[in-house]
Amino acid sequence: MALEARLDCPDLPSLAAHIGDCHRCPLGDTRTKLVFGVGDPHAELMFIGEAPGKNEDLKGEPFVGAAGRFLDELLASIGLTRSQVYIANVLKCRPPGNRDPAAIEIATCTPFLAQQVRLIDPKVIATLGNFATRWLLDTTAGITGLRGKLYHVEGRQVVPIFHPAVALYDPRKRDDLLDDFKRLRAVIDRTGTNPDEGGAPAPPVG
Q1: Residue 1 has what pLDDT?
Q2: Residue 134 belongs to what domain range?
Q3: Domain for residue 33, yes or no?
C-alpha cells in the first residue's frame, strides 16, 4: 500500500466527516453522490474495487449494479454475505462515462482509502481488478499476471481477483472469478479469519 500520511480520523464516521462534500479533485463537480464504503466496520475481510459506476453514483453505495449482483453471488459461493465484509473503492466518486481513474484522482483519493484500511484493520484484502491491485501492491503489473497468488502488505494478506464486471462482458471470466473466490476462501480459512461468525477468530485446526 502506498504510504500516504495518516489522517487524524480515529473512526470511520470521523473519516467520512473529514472527506465531507469533497471537491479536492474535479470529480467532485461531476458526481451525484460520494461513495464512501459499506459493510462491517470491523470486518476481517475487505474488498477494494476501482470506482463507482452509474448505479453506485446514484445510490451512494458500492457495487449495487449488475457487477454488484454478481459479487453477491460470488460471496454466497463461499458462504458469505455483504454484512460480513467491508467494500470500498480506490475512488469515491464516479469518473465521467466510467472511464479509467486518472493518476491525480487516485493520488487525491487513496489517502482516504488507506485510512479506511487502517481503521477497519482487515486480515485479508481482496483487490478487485487492476487499479486496486496496483495501488495496494505498488506495482504496474496487470491483474491477469497477479491473480492466483498471495501477497503480504503491512501484515495483511492480499488476494488479487478479477473485477466482477469483467464477467458481464466476457462470460468466460465467470469461472475464473469463481476460482478466485475459492482461493480467497482458502486464504480466509488458513489465516483463522472467520467472517461466518462476525469476525471472531476461527478455532485452531489439527
Answers
A1: 53
A2: 12-191
A3: yes
Domain assignment present for residue 83? The answer is yes
Q: Helix (H, G, I), strand (E, B), or coil: what is residue 170?
A: coil
pLDDT for 113-169, tens place per residue? 999 999 999 999 999 999 999 999 999 999 999 998 999 999 999 999 999 999 999
Partners of 46 in the β-ladder: 86, 125
C-alpha 193/C-alpha 101 separation (Å) is 32
Query: What per-residue confidence (pLDDT) applies to 6?
Result: 83
User: Could you count the other beta carbons within 10 Å of the beta carbon of residue 161?
Assistant: 24
pLDDT one-digit tens code per residue, 30-46: 999 999 999 999 999 99
Can you give the pTM of this predicted structure? Answer: 0.90
CATH code: domain of residue 105: 3.40.470.10
Return the pLDDT at 196: 52
In a domain, 41, yes or no: yes
- Dist. CA 32–CA 74, nearest whole Å: 28
User: For residue 90, what is the DSSP state?
Assistant: S
Residue-wise DSSP of 51-107: ---HHHHHHTSSS-SHHHHHHHHHHHHTT--GGGSEEEES-SSPPGGGPPPPHHHHH
CA nearest 145: which of 125, 167, 162, 169? Answer: 162
pLDDT score for 144? 94
CA 149 from centroid of its chain's CA atoms = 17
Amino acid (1-letter code) at residue 97: G
Cβ–Cβ < 8 Å for 38, 61? yes
